[in-house]
What does this fold into?
Amino acid sequence: MGKISLGVNMEFVRHDDKSFEWGVQKAAELGYDCVEPMVHWGRELLSEAGYFHSVSMLDDPYRIRRACEKAGIGISGLSAHTPLGRPEVGTEYLKQAVRFAAECGAPVVNTDEGPKQPWTTSDEDHVLMRYTLREVAAVAEPRGILIGIEPHQQYSKTPAGLDRILALVDSPAIGVNFDTGNSYLSGEDPIVWLRHVKDRLVHLHAKDISVSQSDAERGKVTGTPVGCACGEGVIDWAGVIEICKATPRDIAISVECGTVDQAERSVKYLRKLLK
It folds into this structure.
């Protein structure tokens, strides 16, 4: 039986023009157990100036560790999304993210297959993704880091499509970062899909979808950046939690919403369900 911790993706502070450290402290004040930092390559002006939450992988990984220790909060994983089907980008990016995660104390690195090149076929894309995942798994396995593949793009938008990606490489390091909102918007039943992948689940994005967004976009898109506050949309959170409790490993439920107010309402709602 898995133990559930309640976390928040750092996207909840992106409209506040504040630093990573500010966002970590805010998450702790709201009552979250852990945060999911986002990392990037190189240097980014807004992040350097303290106006954005993303952390450069050129920084010391202990920057993340120290900020979380100071706030008394854990790390659920790293948001390190990159196109798996473009190995010239995704391979080295994810390998660096894995090494960064091992140093900062994040147990999971989350990604998805990313947008594809317009001139590659489906079979070619899967060969390219296999290359990336094999290289990354070789770095992740000895470090005990898990790779969470998220349903988000053209191939992972269905259970069969995600299963095909998971089957590309036989590695205990590769699992699923299930996204409740993306799976719903793609036209699937999140509860049925989550139950299908629960034994491969390593992390969960708790993304609720408003009724208005559902009416406008369901079946027309493969995902969305953030959702509304958990409990104010269409997702069956009691069902999600029930499945997470039956997983073979501990799972962080990482809220993905767009504002501090939504994050506050989400943690209050989910805490009641967890109790």
About this structure: The CA atoms of residues 2 and 247 lie 5 Å apart. The chain is about 45% helix and 15% strand. The first strand starts at residue 4 and ends at 9.
